[in-house]
C-alpha cells in the first residue's frame, strides 16, 4: 500500500550498493560541478596533490587516533558512476553542460590516483597530512567529501574511545552501548567498529559483531524485569544440576536462599520485589552459565541485590557460576561500593569466597569525566557500558578534517589566510616521527620530498611551521617514516591489517607518546615541525603570493 | 591483495541488505537474550504494550519534530532473520541455548504486531508516546533498539533544522552542507533527509538528492580557486552570446570589466588575484547561467568581489545572469553588508539595477546562535549553508527516546523510580490534542483507552501526570486524535506521505503551536496532561506497587 518517500521505484535508500560499498554519489554537488569546470577549461589532466589533515585535536586533548583508511581504500576500489548516477546528474547539472562530460564521468575511475597514508590506528597530530592524494585534478577532487566523511567520524570516535580507555585503565572492561543514540543505522555501525579500534572490548550491536567479529555483550533491560509480577508466572521452574541429568526445582532453591539472605542481611523480605525475583530466576534458567542481572529496577540494595544473590547462590548450589550485576542509575560510586560490601558479607557468611568478585557493570549516561570522578571518589565497578557520550562524542561531535590542494603540475600551492593556523603547507611532503632514547616520540618532522630522511644519531633542525623563532635540534634515537603507498595502479597495494590489528596498532602507538601528551587535564602539545628547507620554501612562496597593499 | 577487516568473505559491511532495508541484527544483544528468556519461561505468547517516548525536548527548547516513522515501518515490513543471522547467533548465545529457539527466531516476524503512531512530522512533547507497539512480548521487545535508532536521530536533526528555519525566517534559503561531518556515510544521508523535513531547502549531498528527490546545491571549493594561477592557463576562453551562435573571447571582456571596476571602486588591480579571476572566469564558462563564486580565498573586498563582479558583468554583456557569491570566513555581518553596498554601487555606476540583488550565501561554521546574532547585528545574507552544527546537533547530540513496557496481558505495568520524571504512565493510552478558539494547540491530553474522547465545547479536566494540585479545565474548540494504526496483519495500513508531505506537515504542525512555545529564548513549556481517570489509575497502581518500608 505505502509508496513512502521515494519517488522512483527500485532505488536503494542506502549509501552503499548491494556489495556493501559506498556509492560515489555520496558526495557534495560542488565536487561534480568543479570536475566539470576543470574538464571544460582544459585541466582534466593536470596532476594535483591534495593533503587530508585536521587543525585541532578533539576533546581539549593533544592526540588523535587516525581511523577510516580501510573504508577509504574500499571506496576507491569500487569507485564507478553507474548509468543511473549519470542520468541523475544530467538532470541536476545545467542543460548547457556538454554531453561529452558525462561520457568522461562514466569512464572515470581512480586508476591513476596514488594514495599515500599513515597507517590506520596511528596516533596523529594537527597539520600533519594523514592522507596524500596524487593524480588527475578532477578525479582527486571528486574523492574529497567521501574521504573526509570516512576519516572524520571514524577518527573522532576512535579517539573518544581511546580516551575512555585511558580514563578507565587497562583492567576495566569497556562496552559500547550506543546504537540507539547514534546518527541513524550506519552511525551506530561505524561507532561500534571504531570504538573497538580505540580500545573497547565489545559492543551491544549484534550486526557489528556479525560483520566485524567484534565481541557482543548484553543481558536484559528494565522491561524484562517489569514483565514479571510473581514466581507463579514461570512455566519453567526446573534446572539440571550442572553436568548431570538430575532436574531440580530451581525456584524452590531460590526461595530458600532469599529467606536465608534477607535474614543474614537484615532486610525485610517484603521489601524485595517478587516480580524482580521471578525475572532474575527465569533469566538464570535461560542463561545458567552467564547470569548477569540488572538490579536497579526497584531498590538496588533492598531488592535487586538480595534477589540477585538468591538466584546466584541457587545457581551455585547446582554447580553454575553467576557473572554479576549491572547498575543503570543512582550514585555509582556509593552503590558499587555498597554492593561490593554486601557481596563480601555474603561471601563470608555463606562461605562462598568467589562471590566477593562478582562483576559490577555500570551503565548510566557515563562520560569521560564521570570515570575520572569515580576514580577519585573510589568505586568497585569492573566494567562500563557506555552509549550516548561515546558515540555522539558529546564534548566535540565533529573532527574538522579538511582536504587542501597543495600542488598542481609540480607547482606548489599555498592557501593564504588571515588566520596563520589556516595557511596550508605547500607541495608533496615526507613525514617522519623522531623518537628519543627512552622510546617515546619526540616530534613529527615534515620535509620536502626531495630531502634526505633524517638519520639516527644525527641532529636535525626542527622548526615550527609558522613561528620563526621556535626551532630546536633533535638527535633521534629512532626514525620512523610514516607514509606508505596504499593505492596505486587501481589497486590496494599494501596488506591491510584486521580490525584487531588496527586496535593493537592504536594501543602501541599511544604507548609511544609521552604520558603528558595523553593525559586528560592540561596535556602538553606534541610538536609537529617542518625541516629548515620546507620552512624556507613555504615562507618564500607565502611572500611571493601575498599581494602588497598600500597604506592609506 | 587486501583482506581488510572482515573475516568472512561475501559479508556485506552495511546495516542494510541489498534492497536497502535495515538488517534485523542491527540491535542490541540483550534484545535477543531477553527473547530467549521470554521464550524459555513460557512468555512467548504474552501480549505486551510498549511506549516509545522521550522525557525532555532537545536544545533547551519546548518542542520536537517527530520523524523516522517511514523507516520504522519499512523495517517492520522486511523484518526477518536470515539463515546466516541465525548461524551467527548460535555462536554468540550460550551453547546451552535450546535449538528450538533458533527455529522460533527463524520463523519470527512482526505479523502479529500492531503499531500505533503519531503522524510523521508532527510537533510532539515529552512523555507523550510517539509510537505504541502491541503484540507478542518477544517480538515487541526485539523491535526496541532499531525503532529507537530510527526515531532518535531523525527527530533530533529534524528539530534542529526546524530551529534553524525559525531563526533564519521563512524567506532565507537554507542548505544542508553536513555530509563530511556526519557520523559516517549513513549519518550524512539521514541528516540530509531529516533536515529537509525540518525545513531546509536543499542539500549538498548528491546521493540524498538522487534517493529522496531533495534539491541539491553547490558551487566550488577553495581548492578550485587555488588550482589556478593565471588567465594564461585557460585553454577555453570563448563563450557564445546567449541564444546565438556568435562565439566571443570571454576572457578579454572579463579583463576589460576588471579594469573598469577597480577604477570605479578605487581598488588597486594588483591587489586582485589573477588566479582567482582565472578560476571564476573558467567556472563561469562552465556554468554561464548559474555562476556563484566563493569569494574569500584571498581578500573578499579587494580581490573576491572585484573579480566576481568582472566575471558577472562580462556574463551580463553576453546575455547571462550570474547568481551571486558565497562567504566562508570572516565577519559575516560586516562582510555581507559591505558586499551588498559594493553591489549597489556597481549597480548604480554601471546601470545594472539587478546587480544589487545578487545572492549572498554564508557558510562558515554557522549555528543557531550565529543566525540570531546576525539578525540582531543586521546582515545582507540571502542563504545559509550549514554543516557541522546542524548534522551533529552540537548543542545536544542525542535525543533520549526510550521504549518502556506499560502492559502485559492486559495488566498495566508501571516502572517506578526515585526520580518522578522517570515513572512511566501505565497501560495502553489514547492521545488528543486540544485546540483553543484561536486555532493554537492548548494541551495534549492522554487518556485511558476505554474513556470517551473529549468533545468540542465540553470542558474536560486536564491533570499534570505527577503533581496533584496542577490541573485545569479545558473547553476545546477542536479535538485532534493523534494516533493512527500504521501497521497491522503484517502490513503497512496507512498511506504514507511523500518526504515533501512530511515536510509540509512539520511546518503546519509548528504553526499550530503558540509562538512562545517555539521561541529560542526561554520558551514556555507546552502542557501534556492526563485525564482524571488516568491520573487516579496510575497513582493507585503506583501505591500498590511501591513496597512499604519501616522507619528505623
TrEMBL record, chains A, B:
Q: Does the keyword Phosphoprotein apply?
A: yes
Names of required cofactors: Mg(2+); Mn(2+)
**Could you say which enzyme class this protein belongs to?**
ligase
Any one Gene Ontology molecular-function term assigned to this protein's record: nicotinate phosphoribosyltransferase activity
Q: Which domain of life is it from?
A: Eukaryota
User: Has the keyword Metal-binding been applied to this entry?
Assistant: yes
The Nicotinate phosphoribosyltransferase C-terminal domain covers: 429-537
Q: Name one Pfam family in it.
A: NAPRTase
Q: Which InterPro entries match?
A: Aldolase_TIM, N/Namide_PRibTrfase, NAPRTase_C, NAPRTase_N, Nic_PRibTrfase-Fam, Nic_PRibTrfase_pncB, Nicotinate_pribotase-like_C
Q: Which CDD domains match?
A: NAPRTase_A
Supply one GO BP term: NAD+ biosynthetic process via the salvage pathway
Q: Which UniProt keywords apply?
A: Ligase, Magnesium, Manganese, Metal-binding, Phosphoprotein, Pyridine nucleotide biosynthesis, Transferase
The EC number on file is 6.3.4.21
The family annotation for this protein states: Belongs to the NAPRTase family.
Q: What does this protein do?
A: Catalyzes the first step in the biosynthesis of NAD from nicotinic acid, the ATP-dependent synthesis of beta-nicotinate D-ribonucleotide from nicotinate and 5-phospho-D-ribose 1-phosphate. Helps prevent cellular oxidative stress via its role in NAD biosynthesis.
Q: What is this protein called?
A: Nicotinate phosphoribosyltransferase
Query: Which organism does this record belong to?
Result: Owenia fusiformis (Polychaete worm)
Q: What is the phylogenetic placement of the source species in the record?
A: Eukaryota, Metazoa, Spiralia, Lophotrochozoa, Annelida
